[in-house]
Amino acid sequence: GIYDIKLLVNRVRPDLVASHNMLSVKDVQEALGLPLLGAIPEDTQMILSTNFGEPLVLRNKLTLAGIAFETVARRLVGFQTDLLNLETPYKNLFQKLEMFFLRPFD
Question: In angstroms, what is the C-alpha Rg of the chain?
Fold first, then answer.
């Protein structure tokens, strides 16, 4: 009875994608034929967050994975939010931060 299935790709490593040792998010999406909800990059802060029992998005240090999780959460509840570009994540990072702080969850 589940009809609205979306793809979430986890632990993406752009360096491995660039060296052709990992499928790109686009390749995974095309292989599975599912609409993309988002992609979460590999992040060592995730391990620390888990070890301390606190959510990554609530830690003091802003991380790319934390921003990606926020983006996925927004898309999941229906916001029309652009996907985070993991190949050049810092190109528009300030735009993403601006959007995050100016358009919080209702």
Answer: 14
